[in-house]
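Sequence only, no structure available. Ideas?
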Amino acid sequence: MVTYLWFIDNKRIVVVSFIIYLLSLTQKCYVQYPSNNDTSVGWALLVLGWIGLDYHCYVWLANPFLFVSWWFMFRGYFKSSIAMSLISICLMLSFLSYRLILVRVMPDIVYGRIVGYEAGYWLWVASAFVLIVGDLILVVRYYYLVSDK
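Reply:
I predicted one. Tokens follow.
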């Protein structure tokens, strides 16, 4: 009988991932030049990030995939949660390839250069990473228990 990692269950993993996500919303996510401190806070990016979809910046779509992944994990659909988490973390990490970020749309389009990444970004990625690791632990533990019978 397997007794290791008995304290890990799907609801705890979702709660830990969600808390990390909430922490990311309170932090700055990137450093840009010229500096515009108001738009790089996590909550502002969550609320306004969808605007980037019109300008071919699809990183914001990691949020809905992460939300769906939480729901799948909470309901116990671990394989579906792994798939959604992987899509989410790939979109999150794709932000590292961007050199410019949309700063302002009106009255004209202004881009800022990304010069660094702050704690908010890394916490955002960590929230998806915790979910993937938790999913994998639960899937392996489940199949290990099933194969013992």
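The chain has one domain: 10-148.
Hope that gets you unstuck.
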